[in-house]
Specification:
single chain; mainly alpha; 79% helix; globular
Length: 112
């Protein structure tokens, strides 16, 4: 799956098409699902360097997957980036926390 995503992503670049925020987010998601955290973070930095501002979708993918992987320092790094890139970072982070807690609570209840 990651290999295919990389082919599509690099194909855009070869054609002279700069990937948009959504393309970067999808690539980040592919790396994170494959536990390729370092590659995901490198791609996140490339995204910002290319002038593609991360949006709420991108930040959600990063925060949720990094939390699942236990990458607390990286989660905090991404959360700090929310202040720079999102219009309402405090509201967004509160939503992320509520939704994530809700999911964990549901799983806990199902486990009982």
């Amino acid at each position: 799956m990651v290999a295919l995503a990389e082919v599509v992503f690099s194909g855009l670049l070869k054609e002279g098409i700069e990937p948009d925020t959504r393309a970067y987010a999808e690539m980040l998601g592919a790396y994170l699902r494959a536990d390729m955290i370092e590659k995901a973070m490198q791609t996140y930095e490339k995204m910002k360097a290319a002038g593609r501002a991360p949006n709420e979708f991108t930040m959600m993918i990063l925060i949720r997957n990094l939390e699942k992987a236990g990458e607390k320092d990286l989660v905090e790094f991404v959360k700090r980036g929310c202040v720079e890139y999102l219009d309402s970072p405090k509201k967004f982070l509160e939503e992320v926390g509520r939704k994530y807690v809700g999911i964990r609570s549901s799983i806990l209840i199902l486990a009982l």
